[in-house]
Here is the input.
Amino acid sequence: MPILPVQRDLYPPGLLEALARGAPPVSVGLSTDARWLAFYTLSRREKDLMRRLEAAKLPFYSPLVRRRLHSAGGRARASYVPLFPGYVFAAVDEEQRRTALATNTISRCIAIADPLSLVHDLRSIQRLIEHDAPMTPESRIEPGHRVRVRSGPLLGLEGEVIRRSGGERLLVAVRFLNQGASIELEDVDVERL
Here is the structure.
């Protein structure tokens, strides 16, 4: 299978930089009634959505970071994965939002309450990525939090986090049929209730 070129994670180029400087939204191609939304994508469809948004010329940002993996033979490989799995941030008006929803890659749209803070935070993340600073997403899921499994054979089950095992693993207690069991899940496989 051929290796794909690096996916563009920002469209149009310079969008965040211009907005962080205080440039008027119209000067960077945003419509006058555009608002920032977080598109929560279907599982593993972030890059597909980004390609479709770029083809439709809709402004977006979804930071991609390099992940280095080693195969069983010891060969090092690099791939680019979303820093925030499942999310693509876009500045769109209502018509553009409907265009994005027509891609059939979006599960739901989440309105951003403070767009200025979002732009500032995204620009900071972009600068860290440009300087090749090693980054991993940090979850706010801690022991004691109630969670719901959002993928896999246990989809929909709810439980409570007992402890974190390593950086990305959670030990979750799940109750069903008046019994209980604990399972170890990836951080990305659960959502906080």
